[in-house]
Amino acid sequence: MLPLRNHILLIGFKHVGKSVIGKVLAEKLSVFHLDLDNRIEFFYEKKWHEKLTCRAIMEKKGEPFFRSLETDTLRAIMDSAPSVISTGGGTPLFSDNQKIMQSGTLVHIQAPKEIVYERIQKTGRPAFFNPEDDLLNAFNALWEKRLAIYQEISDFSIVNEGSVDDVGHGIIQQLNRYEGSKHD
Questions:
Q1: Which of 48, 52, 97 is nearest to 76 (CA)?
Q2: pTM score, two decimals?
């Protein structure tokens, strides 16, 4: 694998494994791993002197505030040296973020829908789900909407259904093919 010329951004639904895969992939590529949610929390604490999770920021300040902070944070980390960036599940849904991410390689991480739903049930209703909606119906509607966007903007996809090490290796194989096809 040649040295990275641009960022690799992992996109996909909540709980598909973007963060853990990002760490392994960055290690394999000998680059930094940046978790966008962690960076948002860091920037929020630095600016507003209050330590909150992304979920708490969204609940306290509202989604428009959170998405603006997310875009500003994404813009800041895209100015750093090429690295592996694990994004939040909603990050690619917004055109400002899509424009920022275009300079990188977007890898759509997929996982079986049933497994993702089970993981969401274990961690509680996401802040971006309407509390009045049935959880399964809200999940299915959001899954379909987001899947179409992820597939449209990604450079390639990989399914997370083996070991994290295997997924990381599979991404590197795809990256080599993708980079090679760009130069043909």
A1: 97
A2: 0.93
